[in-house]
Amino acid sequence: MIVGRDRLSGPSLEVAPLLLGAVLVSTVDGAEVAVRLTEVEAYNGLDDPASHAYRGETPRTAVMFGPAGYLYCYFTYGMHWCANVVCEADGTASAVLLRAGEVVRGVDAAMARRPAARMPRDLARGPARLASCLALDRAANGLDLCDPASPVRLESLGSSPADLVRTGPRVGITVATERPWRFWLDGEATVSAFRVGRRNRVAT
DNA sequence: AGGACGATTAACT
DNA sequence: GTTAATCGTCCTC
C-alpha cells in the first residue's frame, strides 16, 4: 500500500510521529532497499530558525515550498546527503527529516553502499547513512513518494503505538534547540545518538 | 568575488 | 572526547 498525499499534508509536527514505523522503499540503481523509520525530526518554514526554508524560498528549498509527499534531499558538510518528506499544503514550507531506520529489505545492497557499517543496525542509523543506503542524492530530490511508479516510495504509513513515541530536542542544530521536535520509537537499536550542534568552528 | 558554515560521519587519541 | 574531510549555499561586501 502506498501512502496517500492527503495523509502527509498536515503540519510537520503532526506528520512526524505518523512517519515512525512507516517503510520507505528505494529501487534507485536497480537494487531494492527498504527502511522502517525509527527516528525523524520536524522542520517548519518561516517560523523555524533551524529550517532551511527559514529565509524564504531558494532554488535549494523549492521542493519544501511545494505540495506534500515529495522528497527533499540536500547536500551538507561537503560530502553527505540527507532526505526529508515534504508536508503541508503547496506554498507552505514544512518537512520531516528522516534521521534513522531499520533496513527491512535489501540488507545486502545496503551493506554494499555502506562499507563502513560493521553491523546491520548501523546501516541507516543517522540521516546521511539512511540516505546513503537508499542511494538518495541530488537525483532523488523532488521525487514523488506517493506515486507507485516512483523509484522511491512511502509504504504503510506508521501505525506505531503512541506510547512508544518519544520526543526531544533536534540533533546538530545551533538555533531553536529548545523545541522538542525530534521523534523516535522507544527501545529501537537504530535510533541515532543525540549530539549538540557545533559552533565556533573557526575559533582558536 | 570572498568567506563562513552546515539538519554529518568515520577515524583517530 | 576530538577532529579532518569537503563543497554547495547564502550572506556580505
Q: Measured on Cα atoms, how large is the radius of gyration?
A: 16 Å
Low-confidence stretches: none
Helix content: 10-25%
Q: How many DSSP E strands? A: 8
Question: How does the major sheet shape up?
Answer: 8 strands, antiparallel
Strand content: 25-35%
Shape: globular
List SSEs in N-to-C order: HEEEEEHHEEE
> Based on helices, strands and strand pairing, what is the structural class?
alpha+beta
- What is the rounded distance between the termini? 54 Å
* Mean pLDDT rating: 95
Output the number of helix runs.
3
Tag the structure with descriptive keywords.
204 residues, alpha+beta, 8-stranded antiparallel beta sheet, 3 helices, 8 strands, 11% helix, DNA-binding
Describe the protein:
The chain is α+β, with helices and mostly antiparallel strands and 204 residues long. Helices cover 11% and strands 26% of the residues. It is built from three helices and eight strands. The protein has helices at 12-19, 107-113, 127-133; strands at residues 23-26, 33-44, 71-76, 80-86, 94-105, 152-155, 165-168, 182-185. Strands 1, 2, 3, 4, 5, 6, 7 and 8 form an eight-stranded antiparallel β-sheet that branches. The longest helix is centred in the N-terminal third of the chain and has 8 residues, at 12-19. The chain is globular. The model has no long low-confidence stretch (mean pLDDT 95). The protein binds a DNA duplex (13 and 13 nucleotides) through strand 3, strand 4 and helix 3.
